[in-house]
Amino acid sequence: MRKIVSFVHVSLDGFVASTDEGMASLGWISITEDLFDYVEQRIGTTDSALYGRVTYQMMESYWPTAADQPNATKHDIEHSRWYKQATKIVLSRTMQGKNLPHTKIISSDLADEITRLKQGAGSDILMFGSPTATHALMAGNLIDEYWLFVNPILLGQGVPLFKGIKNRTALKLVASKVFPSGVVCLQYELQR
């Protein structure tokens, strides 16, 4: 069975976005080549990505042409190549009915649709950022694995990662990695 794997940057105090410069403010995230290389190893083993609408639109505005830019980095080239081939799954009520290449829109029956995807053929489905989508999947206990990139910063306020958790959820730490930047990746699997 396929798994939903959530990749998310989080502050030490549990926020995924700051509110000081608007909800999408991510300037506090530490992004380095060694972190990109680490994540790219996992991305290379999958063929599907899941996004909320806002994150999808942000990704779609950059990744299809990122490799074509004159200052494209190794990461830009590799991720752009992967992104163009990957199946994109977008959770959105406003995009329903759109026919986009390599893209499936889920606008209703979230639990049923995600369960069908997990039971289908293919590799694991990676979810990048997307706080609203993450909260919706958490509410349905649909995320199987978390890769938390804990950044060495306290934001004090913002969009919390673990919002609205109503039931105790047991997780098992299966891997961790410390980066020279001070970011720590904690990889947890959901205990069922």
Task: Give a verbal description of the structure.
The protein has 192 residues and is an alpha/beta fold. The chain has one domain: Dihydrofolate Reductase, subunit A (3-Layer(aba) Sandwich). The chain contains 5 helices and 10 strands; from the N terminus they run E-E-H-E-H-H-E-E-H-E-H-E-E-E-E. It has helices spanning 33-43, 53-66, 74-85, 110-119, 131-139; strands at residues 4-11, 15-17, 48-52, 87-91, 103-106, 125-128, 145-151, 159-160, 171-178, 184-190. The strands form 2 sheets. It has an 8-stranded mixed β-sheet, sandwiched between helices. Strands 2-8 form a two-stranded antiparallel ribbon. A hairpin with a 5-residue loop joins strand 9 and strand 10 (184-190). Helix 1 (33-43) runs parallel beside helix 3. The longest helix is centred in the first third of the chain and has 14 residues, at 53-66. It starts with a strand and ends with a strand. The mean pLDDT is 90.
Please provide a brief summary of the model.
By secondary structure, this protein is of the alpha/beta class. Helix 1 packs parallel to helix 3 (74-85) and helix 2 packs across helix 3.
Tally of distinct domains: 1
Element string (H = helix, E = strand)? EEHEHHEEHEHEEEE
The helix count comes to: 5
CATH topology: Dihydrofolate Reductase, subunit A
Q: Strand tally, please?
A: 10
Give the CA-CA distance, first to last residue: 14 Å
- Annotated CATH architecture: 3-Layer(aba) Sandwich
Tell me the overall shape: globular
Helix percentage:
25-40%
Largest sheet: 8 strands, mixed
Structural class: alpha/beta
So what's the oligomer here?
single chain
Outline the low-pLDDT stretches. none
Average pLDDT taken over every residue: 90
In the CATH scheme, the class would be Alpha Beta
